[in-house]
Amino acid sequence: MKRSIVTLALFVLFSSLSFSQGIIEADEVISDTIRGAHIGDGSRLVNLPNQNLAVSTSGDTLYITEGNFVIIPGLSASNSGNTFANAGADIVNACQTSFNLNASPLVQGTTGLWTILAGTGGNLVNATHPNALFTGQEGESYLLQWTVQHGGGSSSFDQLNISIAVNTETSVANAGQDLFAIMTQSIVLNGNIPEAGSNGGCEILNGVGGILSKKTDPTATFTGVPGQSYTLHWQHYNSCSTSTDELSLTFSESAAGVPSSNGRYFIPDFDFRTFLQVLFPTVMDGDSLVVSQGQLVTSLDLTPVNVNNLDGIQYLPAVSELIVHNQDIKSIPYFSSTLQKFECDCPSLAVVPAFPSNLDTLIGNAWKVQVLPELPNSMRYLEFTNLNNFGGISQSTITFPDLPDNIKYLEIMGWLFTSEMTAIPDNCERVTIIRVFLECCPDQQITQFKIPEEAIEFHIGGIWLDSFPMLPIAKNNLIVLGVSDADISIMPSFADFTMLKSLSLRENNLFKLNLLPTSLESIDIVGNPILCVENKPAGVADQLAEYDICP
Description:
With 551 residues, the chain is an all-beta fold.
């Protein structure tokens, strides 16, 4: 707070000042009159027929006129008949953006006014009141002035510095889900990262022998003692506020052991636990899975359930179908040997175990898995898409295994492969490959696709090819063919493809349509600079009416 100065009327000129037993004497004074004013402890201003005077409220400084002052130790400030402005103590790093000011009260015959001298976004409500409401912005500093107007026309003022903290509210702490029956001796925590302007810290509230690898890391490794339970305290904080969340951890008696055949396994995830309790009540004993009853569960469709942790699925050995659609699933801990269908729309999924040998169907979307496990030869249906990035050039990178020989249905979309995709087996009947690029090659160009011998439908698009896909020898199977957005400029003859009914060649670079089969019923050639066609089958003659027959 800057010191208060009051101006009564005229300037003061001092030729000398002397001090004796609390008496202040002035020889030459020019100004209006303050006579016999008493100050503080009874010391008296004397011989001041005309004095322009201001006294600081700090108790040890006497201000006289503009810039002239004397220090009087122990002198406390007051005045007789004149009110001096006091804006209150400076407010530093305020943790709220709105608060009442605290200027000195007004006395009869005076008025006051708050003004904002500096700072952006400040606002005053009831600015004539000493306790006016001031509102500012986070991270901003302000200079305010409190001015007191006296009845005789004189005034005094005091200035107030205000600074508001950058972040008055810390981010909300989330320590993650409680974990029970932990089968290892250490576990990676899953707390949330503090937002900008907040810090984080973790403490062990109770439990014996627990060790945190790093107290400020929300994903630190916590090592516990088998059979022990712990409570961890995860906190977000800044200079103004704190937010805390607690996490319970319980380790199994044997860190590497498993429940006995007649034992119980506590299901840690609330939604998974509730799902099993409702649909498979005979398998559950309260919140725990009865290990000996686990084989009664043969199908798990968790589509409508917000399951985040599948721990406990290892005690369901007879599951043949597993369907999971969840944003937060990060790993699949176990696949039963009986699993035939696995469907997972899980954008956070980063870890999957090896696929069982009799897996028939795999449907995956937008995984974070970097290396896909080997695909068993039993697989017939593979749909592996990355639709979150579909249409862009920032597809997730993945190392893709060889395709099974028995594959019948293949759909791959929106991926960036680390190496050339292996040949599509000739047994495959339906193929859709859209926007699959190569990380390894110039311009991410794929050299050549061979259409499988048994193909009935074949769609390829958004892939840069150097030539039209190699046509199969067993030509009578192909019914639907689409090659789009591949920059193809030369097309082979389709005269022998007597089963072909639908042909799509959108967004290529074709100037000529070679001989088309008479079986054709629909054709789509939008986006090509076609000049002529060799023939116009009856089923598509109208669609080709605008083109001339090639000479």
